[in-house]
Amino acid sequence: MAKLWSGRFQKETDRLVDDFHSSISFDSRLYKYDITGSMAHAGMLGRMGIITREEADTIINGLQEILTDIEAGRVEFSVAAEDIHMNVEQLLIERIGAVGKKLHTARSRNDQVALDVRMYLRDEIDAVRRLLAELIGTLLDLAEQNQDVVMPGYTHLQRAQPVTLAHHLLAYCQMFGRDMDRMRDCRRRVNVMPLGAGALAGTTFPLDREFVARELGFDAVTENSLDAVSDRDFAVEFTAAAALVMMHLSRFCEEIILWSSAEFGFIELDDAYSTGSSMMPQKKNPDVAELIRGKSGRVFGDLTALLTMLKGLPLAYNKDMQEDKEALFDAVDTVKKCLIIFKPMVATMRVKKENMARAARGGFTNATDLADYLVQRGIPFREAHEIVGRTVAYCLERDKSLDDLSLEEFRRFSDAIDEDVYEAISIARCVAARNVTGGPAPEAVQKAIRAARERLDKN
Ligand code: ARG
Question: How many Cβ atoms are within 10 Å of 135's Cβ, its own excluded?
């Protein structure tokens, strides 16, 4: 079949060019949106008398049949027809004849592709939000089950102060909660209807753009035709939000990888989410977590690719923009795949409570609490800090922890210290005393879990 735009050409395009600029190999995934968008467009053309209602019905029925055929795997797309938009149009003309040629009235592929990508992304944002909500739900369940599991909190990857595993997991709930918000916010700007922008300068036909927007579930129509066909901000925004999801997953994975090492020994991943070594029989590797960490780089790359593709483009549409799709699709696929596998991986990991607690007891994680104890006895904090520092140095020389010191030893550093010091610096007490909003104390954590569940229900 001749190209749909062959009129002004004397020659066929070189086969290399067909291959080079064809996007059907990747944009075929937009078929459903392309067809639904075309149905709404045709319906509107019929309502407005731009084509007859009968013609509109014929087109809509033809499109419906094509959709059914594609879904049943009965359609083979053609590389020569370039992209999903022209493939569908060509199939329509083959199927219903000359009437099919009226579908593209008052429309360009430039506003059509913008429509399709927006409809696609809207659905994918909803899917990503659902996956994030499921993950947060799982993390909240885990937090609930691990409220009494004390572990060291770190700064500089050095043991700092004791927290609980529940508190640590809740930190990630906050991150993924913000990711959900960002996705929703981005969706508002995705859900704007560009048809009517034409190739760049609108159209001479009296379109009812608002009707098309309503039909397709859009909240608004785009307000400038040049912008409508050249704006890919929404794809950049989504990819940036997806990059943040990946960054959060990657940090979590990094911890899971560390925690499952013998050096930490905090968790053991389930066999179903671990892999072995082809040479070393003893190995059990956290490959899934590593791969998620590795795949975060893909999405950062997708974001960079989109920004770089757009930065030098004059208004309005340029073919460069066809390059938006593989980056965007890759970001969508990667973030979904990673969210899907991450959830059962954390849900099934075995927490080695005792090892976590032991690590929390070592490393002087209660040193700040000893200083706070001295402050309560009237010693200025800077001075208390100095006293405890010297006490820690003493312990280090003797390979002891603070709790191992006798009262007599304590008193060498400050006579403000009494028998009640042992209670004051016990790990359970160190956690329980941190009862500020957002802190690790069991009471604060319980409140945080409740608040997070409520927020999730509303989302
Ligand atoms: N496949 C193209 C894309 O993805 C559709 C728009 C093409 N428009 C054009 N005038 N060449 O961007």
Answer: 25
Confidence of residue 396 (pLDDT cuts 50, 70, 90): very high
35 C-alpha to ligand 1 centroid (Å): 16
Type of residue at 80: A
- Residue 330 is predicted with a pLDDT of 98
Residues lining ligand 1, judged by CB closer than 6 Å? 23, 27, 83, 109-110, 113, 317, 319, 321-322
- Report which ligand 1 atom has the smallest distance to the Cα of 23: 1
Structural domain spans, the chain? 15-105, 110-150+164-202+209-358, 367-425
Share of the chain above pLDDT 90, in %: 92
CA distances to 25, 48, 96, 171, 237 from 335, in Å: 21, 42, 40, 20, 14
Catalytic site residue from 23, 25, 156, 261: 156
Q: Taking the CA atoms of 246, 247, 250 and 255 in sequence, report the sign of the dihedral they define.
A: negative
pLDDT for residue 172: 98
Of the candidate CATH numbers 3.40.50.920, 1.20.200.10, 2.10.25.10, 3.40.50.300, the domain formed by 110-150+164-202+209-358 belongs to: 1.20.200.10
Tokens linked to 148: 């009494």
Question: To test the ligand 1 pocket, which listed residue (319, 321, 324) has its Cβ within 8 A of the most ligand atoms?
Answer: 319
Band of residue 363 on the pLDDT scale cut at 50, 70, 90: confident
The gap from C-alpha 66 to its chain's centroid, in whole angstroms, comes to: 33
Q: What is the pTM of this model?
A: 0.94
- Between the CA of 212 and the centroid of ligand 1 the distance, in Å, is 21
By CB atoms closer than 10 A (0-12, 13-18, 19+), residue 364 is buried
Please tell me the class of the 15-105 domain. Answer: mainly alpha
pLDDT of residue 343: 98
**Which of 24, 26, 83, 232 for mutating ligand 1's site (highest number of atoms within 8 Å of CB)?**
83
Which of 277, 385, 414, 426 is an active site residue? 277
Query: Quick check: is 25 catalytic?
Result: no
Digit-coded pLDDT (tens) for 11-51: 888 889 888 999 999 999 999 999 999 999 999 999 999 99
> Whose CA is closest to atom 12 on ligand 1?
322
- 248 tagged catalytic: no
pLDDT greater than 80 at residue 88: yes
Contact call for residues 131 and 246 (beta carbons, < 8 A): no
Secondary-structure class of domain 367-425 per CATH: mainly alpha
What's the whole-number mean pLDDT along residues 255-267?
A: 97
Q: What is the mean pLDDT of residues 183-205?
A: 98
